Amino acid sequence: MGSAKTGRARKLSVAITGPTGAIGLALVDLLEKTPEVARIVGMARSPFDGSARGWRKTEYLQGDVTDPDDVRRLVEGTDVVVHLAFIIIGDIAESRSVNLQGSRNVFETALESSSVKRLVYTSSVAAYGFHSDNPTPLTEEVAPRGTDRFYYSAQKAELEAALARLMSGRDRPDVYVFRPCIVAGPEALLLIENLAPFRPGTRLPEPLAGMLRSVPFAKPILPDPGVRLQVVHQADVASALAAAVLGRGRPGVYNLAASGELTMTDIADELGWYSVPLPGVAVEVAAELVAQVPYLPSGARWIDALRVPVIMSSDKARAELDWRPRYDAMETLRETIAAAFGRGEL
């Protein structure tokens, strides 16, 4: 995907889509303190006040990635484009517009620009898909296949393929693609928010409800199918993206995961909840039911992630980008839970 440029004397101008998401906030915080960056332009659909976070280099541009003119206004004259805008939980029709067409608008505009030297795109571990024949650990050489019935996963795989096609035969701009695992942290509470259905008084779908009926509901109960998972702190994702913004290491694909792995029992223990073993067959049945029910909230489709382990190696990022995450998996979980309690999410 091109070769990294070095020796830049002029300070950078950086365009960012999705600067108000959990990763975007952490990245802008970091770039604001980065001497090599002179200017940041952040585009979001809703207004935001960067001065409230102490941002001084950052300019706000209200716009939508689905509008090519808005994207061109954002990218014009910038050196680096960072694409973070993406819908994880939401309406499938809106997600196709924002995630697929919006991302293509950003990719194509960056590639056509005469000023853009680097394009940084945040994909996801979900791009690999939740397949029983995935190797463990997954390395960047494994082709992303996605999981068709989980649209977020399928779209992430589709976009990586689309970006590779757009870059075919080109030697510029340099392209960095990151595949973080579950992102958590004080402003990345999706992991905790998705546990809401397991609180007392919430009606669970069968067969999960049947597995839990014999357990008293003195505290919430979290089923544990025994599948291990990875998390990464939002600030550590930001530090990897910042390395790409500055052109460190070789362009290409990078997995991002903190040291250590977690189980649902680990999460339950930290929350002060109960956990109960859940046979794999129950997860399989539940996943099949979810796949066949139209109009379910997209968050329910994350049950596919509990069917098989999707464990990545992030050795490449550590070696080539000199990426040194500050938080391990348990530290990330604890900080996320503390923030969720502090905001009344639990």
What is the residue-averaged pLDDT? 86
Number of strands: 11
Architecture (CATH level 2) name of the domain at 12-188 and 232-258 and 311-326: 3-Layer(aba) Sandwich
Q: Could you describe the largest sheet, including whether it forms a barrel? A: 7 strands, parallel
Name the structural class: alpha/beta
Whole-Å distance between the termini? 44 Å
Q: Tell me the strand percentage band.
A: 15-25%
CATH topology of the domain at 12-188 and 232-258 and 311-326: Rossmann fold
Q: SSE order in H/E notation?
A: EHEEHEHEHEEHHEEHEHEHHH
The CATH superfamily label of the domain at 12-188 and 232-258 and 311-326 reads: NAD(P)-binding Rossmann-like Domain
Number of helices: 11
The helicity comes to 25-40%
Q: What Rg is obtained from the alpha carbons, in whole angstroms? A: 20 Å
Approximate shape: globular
Q: Please mark out the parts with pLDDT under 50 across 5 or more consecutive residues, or reply none.
A: 2-8, 285-301
What is the strand arrangement across the widest sheet?
Answer: 3-2-1-4-5-6-10
